[in-house]
Amino acid sequence: MKIGIDKMSFFTSDLYLPMEDLAKARNEDPNKYLIGIGQSKQAVIRNSQDSVTLAANAALKIVDDNEKEKIDLILFGTESGVDNSKSGAIYLQSLLGINSSASGVELKQACFGLTAGIQMAMGHIALHPESRVLLVGSDIARYGIGTLGEKTQGGGAVAIIMSANPHLLEIGTQSAHLTKDIMDFWRPLNRSEALVDGKYSSAEFINFFKETFENYLEKTGEEIDKFTALIFHLPYTKMGLKALRSVIEDLDNDDLKESLLEHFEESRYLNREVGNLYTGSLYLSLLSLLHARNLKAGDQIGLFSYGSGAEGEFYSAKVVEGYEKYVTDEEIAFLDQRTSVSVAEYEQIYRSFMRPQTADYRTEFENDPAPFVLKGQQQQQRIYEKVN
Ligand code: HMG
């Protein structure tokens, strides 16, 4: 039985910060951000959005009435959870009106959470072929104003429906994993901003990629030329380029090198526009690649997922005949209609985020054009509503 990705969608804020402006405000050469980091814009998430509303806004695009009845499992990947106990999946189920027989959980392992969900969904669908699984990767990447990580901030959510006989991608059953207890990036319970050893994390990313890629090739007996595209978790898009270069630099086959680089450029287009999405990042890159419509049925894509702390996985997927019909330009057109904010406006929005607190709080949800918003908190309960 073929199992894989049937539908995908993406949501982020209606506001963005041009990276050139951020670089100038931090007394850096804009090319360091635009080329050295590989980011053009950074999503500025409003205080009326959190991982639940971002996920609901992404999933709304693919969860129609039929899906609401059929979905039987919701897997919510995030490292920006809104509660230490209750899972984001339950909020999502309720906001979208998904049938109450569906079960749901939240999955956490830094940026790896959604990939963990993909593998769980594979097993679940193998046992229950009629199943339709809703997965989301939803996060807000916050490092802090003026920090080294600031230029890699971002946020948003990717939603996926997995099923048997999918319309977009058939996921392979082989994969290679690597898990090591390291402190490259973490976020203690008292913090909303990540702590990170940036250079160390970037070096470990490459090590994890090379090791899992090599293990995958060894396990499957495949060579690199089996892949039409290699795509990556993209904390900043230059990171993926560095990882790709690490395995193509010694190749004799110039055509393959060129073609892998060309597909990589296609795969980083959307990520350049948004910044780090944490759990959703690899899948935004996948969406970006599919949107370029430069693949044909049967092409094999290699996917590298990395979650700090750290866990890495390399797996592959094959493009399904007719996938083009299921990726529409309208789906990502909203990115061109976003509003640019100044550095001062971004800093004001950043500081206005609700902190863990007992007092009631009201967000500026009236200004937010998103369908689902966080209105605030009353008696320590979050108030969500569909307003648009
Ligand atoms: P930095 O130290 O300010 O940057 O921050 P840099 O000095 O390393 O420069 C970056 C690049 O720009 C370099 O290129 C420079 O040469 C180049 P590279 O050597 O890397 O190829 N450069 C220029 N290029 C063109 N024109 C110029 C110019 N000037 C310099 N004028 C750092 C970089 C990544 C350390 C920082 O942004 C950071 O700490 N980010 C957060 C951590 C991170 O993203 N780590 C990535 C791997 S970990 C991961 O992926 C997991 C994660 O998503 C979390 C999770 O799993 O939950 C983060």
TrEMBL record:
GO terms for molecular function: hydroxymethylglutaryl-CoA synthase activity. The active site is at 79 (proton donor/acceptor), 111 (acyl-thioester intermediate), 233 (proton donor/acceptor). Its EC number is 2.3.3.10. InterPro entries: HMG_CoA_synt_C_dom, HMG_CoA_synth_N, HMG_CoA_synthase_prok, Thiolase-like. One of its GO terms (biological process) is acetyl-CoA metabolic process. It comes from Pediococcus pentosaceus (strain ATCC 25745 / CCUG 21536 / LMG 10740 / 183-1w). This is Hydroxymethylglutaryl-CoA synthase. Transmembrane segments: none annotated. Belongs to the thiolase-like superfamily. HMG-CoA synthase family. (3S)-3-hydroxy-3-methylglutaryl-CoA binds at residues 29, 143, 242, 276. Keywords: Acyltransferase, Transferase. Residues 175-247, 262-348 form the Hydroxymethylglutaryl-coenzyme A synthase C-terminal domain. Residues 3-164 form the Hydroxymethylglutaryl-coenzyme A synthase N-terminal domain. It comes from the Bacteria. CDD domains: init_cond_enzymes (cd00827).
